[in-house]
Amino acid sequence: MKKIDFKLMDELTGKARNSARKRMNHNFHTGPEDTLQRLLNAMEPSTYVRPHKHEDPDKREVFFALKGKLCVVQFDHSGNVTDHIVLSPSGPAVAAEIAERTFHTVISLQEGSVAYEAKDGPYNPIDDKNFASWAPAENTPEAAIYLQNLIKKLGLE
Length: 157
Prior knowledge:
The protein is an alpha+beta fold.
C-alpha cells in the first residue's frame, strides 16, 4: 500500500522550499514505462510551470488538491485564458482534469501547497510536454513577470 500522510507532504514541502524551482515531486509509479503516472507535486507560490499540453502522444492529466491552494488554468492555442479553477482540500473545488491537447498550467497560491497528479503514461521527457511558444521559458526574468501578470489577470492576488 502506498500511503499519503502529512509527514510525507511536509517533508516534500520542505524539499520544494529549498529547491531552485520551488517545487518537488514524489513519484508513486514504478517507472517511466507505467501507463498511469502518479505523483505528489509540492509547489510554492513563486514556482512557474510553463504552460504546456500533452499531445502526440495524447495524455490526460488530473490534479487533486491535498494541501494549500492551487489554480489550474486552461488556454487556447494563442495563449488566451479559456478557463480556470481554484482548488483546495476544503473546497468548493478539489480537483480538475485537463483533456489531452489542451494548454494548461498550475499556479501555487499558498505556501505548502501539494497536489496529487495522475497522467497517462508512459513518461518520455523528449515528448511528454509541448510547451506553449507564447509563454516564456522557465528560469527567465520574463517567466516571473508572466506569472505575476497571469495571477493579476485572474484576480488571484
